[in-house]
Amino acid sequence: MRDQLRAAHLALTFLTTLPLPHIKEVRDGDFARASAYYPLAGYAVGGAVALLLWLPVPLPTGVIAALGVGAWLLLTGMLHFDGLVDSADALFAMKTPAERLVILRDVHVGAFGLATGGLYLLLLWSLLSAPIPPLAPLVAAVAARTLLLIPMNTYPAARAESLGARSREGRVWAALLIAAPTLLIPGAWAACLAALVGALLAAAFSARRLGGGLNGDTYGLIVVTAELTALTAFAWGR
């Protein structure tokens, strides 16, 4: 039980900026065990944004959506956004897979990353401005972090020494069980299916461009892609 609580704690401190005490020493296998609790981070991030959309705040819809985008970025520490931007610079470069892996380590942001990051923010703001159900961000955030485990445990790690490699071999079924309550929310099944398609397509594209493997930055790309496709499913036809 203590190991499981430790794993849940590590998942929340790794994937969110919640004011929790950090684990001083990370042992072998801790990150793999923590991956089973990634949905908890989705509940925290998506739940906060959902609450913001639900509250009767006397502000224009666009302003509330902008605050939602800010909350989303703040609560994740821009972890997945950073992965998206870095991945865009590498994956869209006309280079070899080995050279793209080098680009992923570059701290500078290029044109592809800048454009992709801007497009992501615009899409997220537009979707949060749409007449989606208030709980849509909760479903999207939980689904994205849960479904990440499928490509994470399907594709090899692009670099064996990376943090992403240490997070593999997670408990997919345990994560699905934790995320299951969100399926009771109207529209969640379609949104989760859309998130699954988005995650798998992003993973396949990333692996093909990197020579067959994935890394932590591409995990961020997969998460934000799954979130956007889930939110799009909620907004479809409204």
From TrEMBL:
GO MF: adenosylcobinamide-GDP ribazoletransferase activity; cobalamin 5'-phosphate synthase activity
Alphabetical keyword list: Cell membrane, Cobalamin biosynthesis, Magnesium, Membrane, Transferase, Transmembrane, Transmembrane helix
Catalysis: reaction(s): alpha-ribazole + adenosylcob(III)inamide-GDP = adenosylcob(III)alamin + GMP + H(+); alpha-ribazole 5'-phosphate + adenosylcob(III)inamide-GDP = adenosylcob(III)alamin 5'-phosphate + GMP + H(+)
GO cellular component: plasma membrane
Pfam families: CobS (PF02654)
GO biological process, one term: cobalamin biosynthetic process
Physiological role: Joins adenosylcobinamide-GDP and alpha-ribazole to generate adenosylcobalamin (Ado-cobalamin). Also synthesizes adenosylcobalamin 5'-phosphate from adenosylcobinamide-GDP and alpha-ribazole 5'-phosphate.
UniProt name for this protein: Adenosylcobinamide-GDP ribazoletransferase
Native source organism of the sequence: Deinococcus xianganensis
